[in-house]
Amino acid sequence: MVLEVLLQDGCSLAGFATVSREWQTIIERHNFSQIKLTLSRLANFGLMVHRNRSRVRYIWLCMELQEYNCTECEPQDPESWGLTNADNALITTAFLDLFSALSAWEPDGSLLLDISVYSPSDSEHWFKYLTFEPDVASDMCGRDQDAEQSMLVKASDHHHGWIAGSRHSIPTSTAIDKVFEEIMGEGPFDNEEQEGQWWQQLPLVPAVTGVLLRQQNRRRWKPAALAYMFARLPGLQEIHYEPWREWLNIQQKWTDQSLRFLFESLTSDRLQKLVIFENFNQTYPISYVRLRYNPMRIPSSSVSRAVASASLTLKHLSASFIVDAIDFFDAREFSWKWPNLTWLTLTSRLLVPQESPIELDDMLRTAAAAAMKMPNLETMEIWNGQRGLAMLFMYQRPKQGRPAVISWRGTWELTLRPPVIQAWDSVALSHRGQGHVIGKELLDVGACVKSHGDAIRHLKLSRPVIRPILLRQIQMEHIIRGVQSQ
Asked: N or C: which end of the chain has fewer CB within 10 A?
């Protein structure tokens, strides 16, 4: 009982390990299950955990970039754009050291690698609300309960547009670009071929079963680099990838071409779970208005097709905003089957008020046709969420001879017409259900939906489409941003 209280308290437990052999075993299991790995610890990482390798289940690799001051937080000189040579060298050295150490580990259960790239200065200038936390509820990087209060305390900074805890001016495009710099975009390699050769010479790491690339890392990974990285992890079973949307159409077009290559490379039968969440901020693009940005993001059909093809061997797929459900299902070939898929969640731009009912009906019927090729499907969810609106369509497999559930939940009345209901009734019958029931829930919270994060919370999706801590960060960001987000 005493030890349980100590474990929950979050205090340092190392000194209690000498109480008894039983306490030592429990404390070591607790301490080594989740590791925050900073660059200063990398050199001795192998020795540090050698005796307790089998206890490690989560490694948070924190690659902390150089700090910068106000002369660099909004760089005007193009020569200073991008990560410095020192920062890029720091990243390549970290990967070489970590993969070299982990290559000696034998596969032994699950091992999640959470990769973060950030500068401590990111939250000191224009972006006071940024926090950098582990994926688990722990005290690895200090207590998080006071995070919002600490932001408010330091958020009186007129130079960076903050007054009394609220942001009163939008960051410039150069300030935004500073925290969204591309990783290894300006070096240390001369070209993409050289970078590819570098990744390919890294040791294989069979012990890693999962990778997290979370939205709190504004720095952008090149999709091609991720394809090379994943190829060095032959035991990879799950990927959680949360890239940020590009601000300009031409940049998004280039990125989508690379994303297609990334998803086409995911051919391993070992991969079971793919969760992709393209994060966005509806105020950032305003800073690019002179560059003719398009506020409406239309997902690439080629990316949707690549994700659809990659999903054929998966058990779980969630793809939010980076693909559209209509493109995903339209990509289906007659011979395609999803023998393992149990959970599918997609977003669709058609789920908005006053959208064409014919297009929406066609998409939902096409989704039903695909579901007929998913013999183990338990849940399919198609949703949309942004400021002022939220909507979810959901199919739930019948259980033990009960009827299937076809339902919607949202901020406006969604009409499911007879052809749609008939299509999904056929799915229920193929899943050995006794007909179906229709659920409806009108949410009177439209004014409370300030962001896609709020939409997710109100829609109550069956499984997380984004890591829970990051959902809280999105909501906190929109709360603290204040008047500019209204």
From this structure: N
Q: Which of 461, 379, 368 is nearest to 416 (CA)?
A: 368
Cα–Cα distance, 260 to 304 (Å, whole number): 8
- Rounded to two decimals, the pTM is 0.90
Output the pLDDT for position 470: 82
- Quick check: helix, strand or coil at residue 66? coil
List for the chain the helix, strand, coil content (%; round to 5). Answer: 40, 15, 40
Phi, psi of 59 (to 5 degrees): -120, 120
**Tens of pLDDT, residues 226-236:** 999 999 999 99
Helices (H), 404-467: 418-430, 452-459
Longest CA–CA separation in the chain, Å:
70
Work out the angle between the directed axes of helices 192-200 and 223-231 (0-180°, nearest 10): 20
pLDDT-flagged residues of the chain (< 70): 1-32, 137-155, 165, 291-295, 480-486
d(CA 44, CA 54): 17
| Residue pair 407/441 in contact by the 8 Å Cβ criterion | yes
Tokens 């989740």 -> residue = 34
Q: For 218-276, how does the pLDDT look when each residue is reduced to its tens digit (9 = 90+)?
A: 899 999 999 999 999 999 999 999 999 998 888 899 999 999 999 999 988 899 999 99
Query: How remote is the C-alpha of 102 from its chain's centroid?
Result: 24
What's the angle, vertex CA 378, arms to CA 376 and CA 382, rounded to 5?
Answer: 120
What's the Cα-to-Cα distance from 278 to each of 87, 144, 175, 309, 363, rounded to whole Å?
A: 25, 25, 21, 19, 21
